[in-house]
Each structure stands twice: as structure tokens, then as C-alpha cells.
Amino acid sequence: MPSEHLPSDGPEAGPQVERRSLLRLGALLAAGGTAALVPAPVAHAATRGQGSDTVTTTYKGRSPYGNDQWAYVAFDVPAGVQRISVTAAHDASAGILDLGIFGPTGFRGWSGGARTGFTLAASDATPGYVPGPVDPGRWSVILGPMVGSPGGMDWQVDVTLHQGAPLPRVPYDILPAAVAGRGPGWYRGDLHLHSRHSDGQRTVDEIVAAARQEGLHFIATSDHNTSSTGVTWSGNVPTDLLVINAEEVTTRHGHWLAVGLPQGEWVDWRYGPADQGVFEGHARRVHSLGGLTIAAHPLTPAPGSFWEFGLDRVDALEVWNGPWTLDDAANIAAWHVMLCLGKRVAAVGNSDAHSPADAVGRPHNVVRAAALSTPAVLDALRMGRSYAVESAAVTLDFTARAGAAVAGPGEELPLSFFDAVDVTLNVTGAPDSIATLYTEWGIMAATCIDGSGRGQLRWRGWGKASMFARAEVRRPEPASTTLDQLVAITNPVWFYSARLPPYDVERRVLFHTERRPDGSWSGMRPLPGAVGAASFAGVQSALAGMADGSVVVLGVAPDNGLWLTTARGSATLQPWQRVAGPDGSTGFTVREADVAAFPDGTCQIVATAMDGTAYHQLRRADGGLTGFRAMPGSPATSRWGATKVAITAMPDGSAQVLGYGTDGAMYHCVRGRTGTWTPWGRPAGYGGAPTFAGPALAITGMPDGSSQVLAIGIDGIVYHQLRRPDGSWTGFRAPRGVTTATMGASAIGITGTPDGSAQVVAVGLDGRIWHNARMPDGSWTPFGQIPGPNGRDPFPAGQVRITALRDGTTHVTAISAG
After folding, report:
1. Which of 41-50, 86-95, 629-638 has the lowest mean pLDDT?
2. How far is CA 619 from CA 303, 445, 604, 625, 715, in A?
3. What torsion, rounded to 10 degrees, do the Cα atoms 724, 730, 733, 738 define?
4. Which residue in 467, 336, 458 sits closest to 399, CA to CA?
5. What per-residue confidence (pLDDT) applies to 38?
6. In the chain, N or C terminus with fewer CB closer than 10 Å?
7. Interacting residues of 588 by C-beta distance below 8 A, sequence separation 6+
8. What is the mean pLDDT of residues 810-815?
9. pLDDT of 44
10. Whose CA is closest to 73, among 163, 148, 138?
């Protein structure tokens, strides 16, 4: 293409910077207040070349400290000018100077901080700038100073006007809207790619070649703040690859991808969240043009890159941007919270490739579209009918079934409340990885994938007990800033409409009830919340009965923060306390937590962090916490990773810990009275299976030194077994259900009582809490329903826990499902 090789793309061009560094160059800058869009304060130097065909005017100025400001150098262009050339210089030690230009008819180009100069004419333009007639009238060079020096930043702009014979205007090719002959199917594509039209180092031809090499079917060229990429295709449009025109709208308050713009369309970036309705207006315009809006790398912790317009105001979130980092892990955590709130915002993964060292298509999206066309691909992405993978070697098949109905990512499975839901993930091309299934209740199942790269993960849920299910595949190998690497992530299969959800996280309240020694229930009551709230909103709970008759309660809030209080009945005895992380940080977040009480008045707490690390700490008798420490793994010098964890106190002062490891299998270990840990062992599964896997587990110690384990298998059925005092296991058996031979459940709890019985609670297939007991002789009482707040009607719940006191009472906490 003729515009790809011009003088200002050579020695004058700005220094090449690694793409992740570009995102963080602004980190030294404190965000300044929004500046008015006013002409720059300039001093005019003597104009050179007056009376000749080449006239140059120098403008000098100074911009103050700040990140969010724009300045405009206005100049008049007389008739007969055929080319404009601009060069800029600034004090690089003081900050960055972005560069662009507007003509009498509007936008004509932008290069940000990637170049120090450009030229444009009817026949050609520096990449990033739009070739076209040089109309007479008022033009303006736009400067975007990002000034980190308190003393400000000096800059200079030279504008050269070239007169001469008219130059021919070069037409551009129209990108086809579809690839011929490609009907419904799964298609692979990367939506975030940079060429030499912004701060990338590839030509569009080189991007196309790299996309073909990766096995992609579509790409979107999304250069920063410019429309020039779309109007410079000439004789090189591929016929085998769908090219979608796009722009990365790079504001000082977050970047977003406007994907599917008509060629030549441009989206402004000069606004912030305080400019009411401006972002929304641009998003509506993109939608009116048939396009898609995506928040790019939304949680990148750098001024200008961090997304400030609201994560629910876009069609999709770029949760995975280039090589896997801690930023991406934060993106996924934030996206998951949105899903739990019923917000159907799709997730995408893109390479954001800039330099030849950045692999195009790693990661990329695999989209189920009606055709290989721009409208069909964008519609599928908007609905979330896609998953993201690290490379073309990886393929997923993720489905949920209920009877004859089948749904995949981005689709809704029609369900009645009592339907069994079977979710299956088949993985190929992901050797030595771990597949994990999530609902809004956390991790429900996990399994290891061996060196063959092939594996299957299965889980059974019940009706509308969960809002959605989604899957991830990760490789337990360190990346640059994380302990693992993402291999693939799916959009969720939805189990009911998020527009009118039966319940949502914000309405999930922690309730408490007490079962008296005579078997009667006190009725469900919400526990008072933190900081004066009427109730505690949460997604998980755990509790432990103390010797003094109080109950220590843990609550996991919707943001996954871990909180602790002490209660007596339905009243809290002390304010909720946010439990700090292993480094003392108050922002510590967990997936699961459990607590066990000991006769000396102490407690032990276990928790799994968001990265899967399992932690343990003591709560002293005076209520002080010793701080979390990572639990030893195998070998003991390593950390233990788990998706679920439970703990119980034993009569001899030891603690037994049960967990599902990151491979999905159940493990058990003992912490002695002196603080030593035994190696982790794997109990056998049901019916002679080598391991047991499932979405939930619980453990309780008994007065005779045995312990009892309750778990839900991947088939959704409740299983129970006993660990004898000598360490041997009886093997898993399935207790009888309410009216059936087995008990299907989505949540469980178990506690031992002084008389040697074990009290069990379960959220059944009907979403209600049921209770029964295993007697000392091994027999089971029938299941009975736990009443709701009025003492009569059933109580719908999503999660449940139980503990016992010395006087024979039992206490139950439950997260409401409505």
C-alpha cells in the first residue's frame, strides 16, 4: 500500500516500545483534572519560506502538569496547498506528547505518542493519517500532553505547507462483509490488532500473513484513535480471511474497541466519565452502524488504561489480553462477579499484538456463527456464543443438557425447577492442564488433563439452583506475574433469564436458625450485616459452635471478601471483621472458607484464595487472629492448591482437613496438636473408583475419634463415609433421599453431636433445606424440611452449613436463594 512507506515513518518516527510498556508509560503520571479543549498557548517563531512553494511555521508552547489535557495549534491553509507536513518535539524527560490533526471537515489522523511527525496529501499519508484533499481553511494540530513533571513540559510544532500541482486521489478497496461459501460453524478470530497505522510494527499484509499462519478465520484491525487503516486497503484484500474494520478508542479513562465500523468511520476519544452521556452516545452510534463495543484490558493498572466508564456499559469485556498476566486474572474475577449479578456481558480474548514478537491470535476467540460474515460473527460475540483459547491447538466442546434440550456458551437452557442438568466439557490440545467448572456458587468440579491434551469434565446440577455454568482450563506453570497460565475460558451457559432472575447475589442474605434438643426449629432469621447493614449479603458461609454457647460465623461477601463475627442465636455479639490476607492486606479474597472450634476456645480457619492456594490460621481464645499461612503441599516445601476445603476439630486437639485438589480429586490430611501436617492422602471413590470428585464436601469429628465425610459427587448425589480412629475408611455410600433411593443436592453440611449422632443438612433438588441424622448405630432418620422465617413455609437456599453445641442444639446458616 502506498501510504505504508513515507518519509515520516522512518528516522523521524518515535521510539518503538514494547506493547505492555506502552500501556504503563502513564504510570508515573497522576491523573490531572479534565482540561478545557482550548487553543494551546503558543509563541510564533519567524515563518520560513514565505513567497515560495514550501512555507514552515514554528509554534512553541508549554503544557502544565497533568494527564487529562488537550491542546490545539490552529493554522490557516490557503488555496493551492497540496500537502501538509508536521513535526513535533518535546522535553521527553517531562512526559509524553501525543499527536494528531483535524481539518476543516473534521478528523484527518492520529498517531498518539508513536510518531514525532507525519505528512498527508490527496495521494498518500503517513500511517495513522487519512489521505485526501488538503482543503483550504482552518486546520489544527492536536496535542495530547501527558506531563509528569511538576514544572510542565516544553514542546515545539513545525507545520509545513507544500504548494504545487494537484496530486491524484487514490481510491481504497471495500472490505467484503463475508467470505464466500462459509456457512454455520465455529470460526477463530482476533479482534485486537495494531498495525503501523498506530503504534504497531506490522503492515496489514504482515498481519494477514500472521493470522493465516495461526489458523484464524477472521481478524479486526483496531488501531488507536484513527480511521486510516480502513481507507488504505488497495489490491491486497484477502479472499480467504474475513477482515473486520475497527478502532481502539483510546481515551484517558480506558480503552474500548469499536468493532465492525464502516471504513472511514471514526470514533472520538476526548471525553471522560464526568462527561455525562458522551460515552453512551458514541456506543449507541457504534451500535447503529452494526458494530460491537468491547472494553479493552479493562483492569490494567495504569492511568489512561484502567476502565472508568462502567463494565456493564459495553457488549463484551476483553478479559484476556495477550500473554496471561495478573491483570487478566483480575479481569476474569470482575467479570465473574458481573455474571453472578445476572449481567450478560460476554467475555473475549485477544492478542493486542503490536510488534513482530507479539503472536497474532494468541489468544483468540472461537465463535459459533451462522456464517463467516461480519454481521454473523459480531452477533455471536455479542451473545457470548464463543470461548477464548491460547492458540489454535486448543478446542473445547462445552454443553449443558436437560432432557432433549442442549445449550452451549451464550445460550439459555430451558428448565423447570426440578430438571437435572448435565454439563460436559470436552477438551483437546491442552496437555498437562486443569479444567474447572464454575457457577455463581464457585468451583463445582475440576479434573486434570494429562499429557495427551485430551480430557473431559462432567457435572450434574439441578434446575435453577444455579444461574449459569462456565468453564476454564489452566496450566499450573508460572507466567510473568501469575502462578498459572490460562489455556481456555468459555462464556457461560445460562439456566434462566437474567432479565427477571429468581434471585441474584445482591438479594442473597445470610440467615440463621437453631434446632433445639427437642427437635423443634426456631425459624430462619437474617444475621445483621457489617457496618450497620440490616443483613449480611453473601455467597458462602461457615460456622463453628464454641464451648461457651456462642457460634463463630464466617461469611464470604459478593466481592469474595472474607468476614468473621460471633453470634448467639440470630444476634451478632460483635461487629463483622474483615479477615486480612496472608500479607496483612484487607483486600484478601477467597473462593471457599471453613472454621472449626476447639475445646480450649480457639478456632482454626481454612480458606482457598482466588489463585487456588489453600491457607490456614488460628483464632485465639481472645478473638485475635494469627494470620493466614499457606498449607503445605506435596512435597511439604510446596503450597497446597485446592478448589474446596473443609476442616473439623477432633477430641485429641488435632484437626482434620478435607479438600478437592486442583486436579478435582478429594484429599485428606491431619494437622496435629503441635502444628505438624501429615501428607495428603486420597480417599477412594464410590463403588471402587480410585478417587472421588464433586462440587461440595464437608467433614465433622466425632466423640469416639472417628470423623464423618459428606460429599456431593459429579452425578449430583450425596455420599457419606466414615474414617475410623485408626485412619481406615469405610467407603462411600449414598444415604436414602426424601422419597427416592438417593438424595440429590446442590449444597450440604454435617456436624457431630455429643450423643454420637451426626446431623446433616442439604439443599435438595427443590431448592429447599432438608435435615436428617445419622445415628450412632449407623442408621439414618428420614429427611425433614427446615422451615422458613414464619416457622412453617420451606426456606429456599443456595448454600447451607451446620454446627453443634455441647447442650445438643444445632445451628444452621444458609444463604437465601430469593
Report:
1. 41-50
2. 40, 30, 6, 5, 36
3. -30
4. 458
5. 59
6. C
7. 561, 562, 579, 580, 581, 582, 609, 628
8. 95
9. 66
10. 138
Taking the alpha carbons of 112, 118, 123, 127 in that order, is the dihedral positive or negative? Answer: negative
Q: What φ, ψ does residue 26 adopt, rounded to 5°?
A: -80, 0
Q: In what order do the strands lie in the sheet with 666-671?
A: 642-649, 655-661, 666-671
Pairing of strands 442-449, 433-439: antiparallel
CATH code, domain with 321:
3.20.20.140
* Cα separation, 111 vs 195, whole angstroms: 11
Looking at residue 794, what is its pLDDT?
81
pLDDT at 27: 26
Higher-confidence position of 462 and 806: 806
436, part of any domain: yes
Residues 636 and 773 in one domain: yes
Q: What is the pLDDT of residues 113-124, one digit of tens each?
A: 999 999 999 999
User: Alpha-carbon distance 632 to 654, whole Å?
Assistant: 16
Strand, helix or coil for residue 100: strand
What is the residue whose three cell numbers read 443436592?
A: 745
| Residues 785 and 643 placed together within one structural domain of the fold | yes
Digit-coded pLDDT (tens) for 272-286: 999 999 999 999 999
DSSP-based three-state secondary structure for 487: strand
Three-state DSSP at 805 gives: coil
Q: How far is CA 193 from CA 124, 223, 471, in A?
A: 23, 7, 26
Q: Is 591 among the domain residues?
A: no
Residues 367 and 419 in one domain: no
Closest CA to 94 of 157, 44, 158, 25: 25
pLDDT tens track for 631-642: 998 777 788 888
Last residue of a domain, one of 474, 501, 528: 501
Same domain, 372 and 483: no
In this structure, what are the phi and psi dihedrals at residue 415, rounded to the nearest 5 degrees? Answer: -135, 150
CA end-to-end span of the chain: 60
Helix (H) or strand (E) holding 658: strand 655-661
CA angle 455/461/467 to nearest 5° reads 105
Residue 542 in domain:
no
Spacing of C-alpha 105 from chain mean position:
41
Instruction: Say if 588 falls within a structural domain.
Output: no
Residue 493 has a CB neighbour count (10 Å cut-off) of 25
Burial of 618 (0-12, 13-18, 19+ CB in 10 A): middle
Does residue 405 sit in the same domain as residue 333? Answer: no
Measured CA to CA, the distance from residue 354 to residue 18 in angstroms comes to 8
In sign, the C-alpha dihedral spanning 476, 482, 487, 488 is positive
Q: Do both 653 and 772 map to the same domain?
A: yes
Name every residue whose Cβ is closer than 8 Å to that of residue 51 and which is 6 or more positions away in sequence: none
**Average per-residue pLDDT for the chain:** 90
Rounded to 5 degrees, φ, ψ at 404 are: -90, -10
User: Measured at the alpha carbon of residue 430, what is the angle toward residues 428 and 431, in degrees to the nearest 5?
Assistant: 115
Q: Please classify residue 790 by burial: count the beta carbons closer than 10 Å to its beta carbon, then call 0-12 exposed, 13-18 middle and 19+ buried.
A: exposed
- Give yes or no for a cis peptide into 635 (omega within 30° of 0): yes
Collect all residues with Cβ–Cβ distance below 8 Å to 280 and sequence separation of at least 6. 313
* Distance in angstroms (rounded) separating the CA atoms of residues 539 and 31: 35
Q: Do residue 21 and residue 152 come from a single domain?
A: yes
Number of domains in the chain: 4
Q: Which CATH number does the domain housing residue 418 bear? A: 2.60.40
Please report, for the domain that includes residue 699, its CATH number.
2.120.10.70
CATH number, domain containing residue 12:
2.60.120.380
For residues 423 and 459, the answer to whether their CB atoms sit within 8 Å is: yes
Q: How far apart are the C-alpha atoms of 37 and 273, rounded to whole Å?
A: 16
C-beta separation of 707 from 701 below 8 A: yes
Those residues with Cβ within 8 angstroms of residue 268's Cβ, 6 or more apart along the chain or in another chain: 107, 249, 282
Domain that holds residue 377: 172-392
Kindly state whether residues 117 and 193 are assigned to the same domain: no
- Looking up cell 452510534 gives 285
